[in-house]
Design goal:
Layout: E1 4-9, H1 20-28, E2 31-34, H2 40-47, E3 53-54, H3 56-61, H4 65-82, E4 88-93, H5 102-110, E5 118-121, H6 126-134, E6 142-146, E7 160-164, H7 169-180, E8 188-193, E9 202-207, E10 221-225, H8 238-248, H9 255-259, H10 266-281, H11 285-309, H12 314-328, H13 330-333, H14 341-358, H15 378-391, H16 399-418, H17 423-443, H18 448-472, H19 482-497
Helix pairs in contact: 4-5, 8-11, 10-11, 15-17, 16-17, 18-19
Amino acid sequence: MSATITVVGLGSGDPDRLTLGSLKRLQEAGERYVRTKDHPVVDWLEETGVHFTSFDEVYEAKDDFPSVYEEIASRLLARAKAGQEGEHIVYAVPGHPQVAEATVKLLRERCPEQGISLDIIGGESFLDEAFVRLGFDPIEGFLLVDASEVRGEAIDPRRHTLIGQVYDQITASEVKLGLMELLPDDYPVVVGHALGVAGQERIERVPLFELDRITGYGNLSLVYVPASEDDTLRNRSFQRLHEIVSILRSPGGCPWDREQTHESIRKNLIEETYEVLETIDDDDPDHMREELGDLLLQIMLHSQMEEETGTFTVYDVIQELNEKLIYRHPHVFGNLSAEDAEAALNNWEAMKAEEKKRKGIQPERQSVISGVPRDLPALMKAYKLQKKAAKAGFDWEDIDGVWSKLEEEIRELKEAVAQKQDVEAQEMELGDVLFSVVNAARYIGVDPEQALSRTIRKFTERFHYVEDRLRDLGKTPGDSTLAEMDKLWDEAKSKERE
């Protein structure tokens, strides 16, 4: 049999708050351990003759806190295994054993597995003092966060938030940066040091940007972020966006938004997508931020329409996307590896094929060119279809075959025009030429959509130059000769080379 491990909470720091029961257990114990001696109650107990073996040296030996906690738990378990039945090993921890105490969590998990009895005696946690000294009621909405977990998405400004384990200024700086993802730089926060400990307590109220500029951080420090009813503080949160879109579509919301359907705003989705692409082409991050928001709104509206019918919500969309990303990246979230982008793409395609099997789709019965969206722009769709066909082996052996085919299609187009065939026949021949041009683009590794977009931008800039120069001369394209405009066009080309 093994000895029993008894965990005792030392309270928040004031010896007067140590319970009589805890004190008796500590005084009667034959063997006492403490996670750290850096606690006012430990100093007081040792002055009264209650001595401890501490694990402070483990902090020096290990590189990170998880390793420290793992080592402490392992040592305690080994000592208990070597003990006798009826023997009690006392392990004291700051505060309450069940509040932000990783070593106790490890003991709770492993003691049953190893047949070791575990007894836990509570104590006043730092939360009790925080509620009193900082003056808020947790029933109003309360969140406790470890300093290492502070991120914008983890904070709700409507809730009182306590951040524990703020050991030093470096940790305070990380907390500050995490809070600034959501809150303004001057948001008022409170730093509490040794709350409730006579002669050591210090409470400082500072704007958020000064959080890491104050001194005195240690094992008994915390940061308090007061709750606020200001909804503008939530404007960086996804939850607030979902809420706003829901309100717009509600009976008391916007009449226009309420009337929209998937079909009525279908074109908006396409337009907003192209406006985002324009900002990418223009390398305009500020404008891109705005246009990405407009595109996100379309996704939110379509999702909200389905939420109103009970089909799915935007959170279902997010869940499915997250699951797909994890599943299709086994080289990141699983056991596979990918040395380069090509290997990663192969993993992606393999997982896509596996997904289809799970859904009952039989790949062998599908066309090799399936999966290309029906409503893609024609140039882009032609490119994707040709890539799929080429991957299946339907491709020219070399680029000479591409040129021959392009020349053949141009010749047939010329003949159709010269013979004054009907418009539909000429249209078909022109389509063949364009399709062959796309083939040439694919063969030389150029995206035809991007190539044409660049040429359009170049044409637009040159034509604007021509218009501006004509305007300087008091003229317009309508009352200028082609020779005049050609001369200005050549000027525009020469300036591009400068």
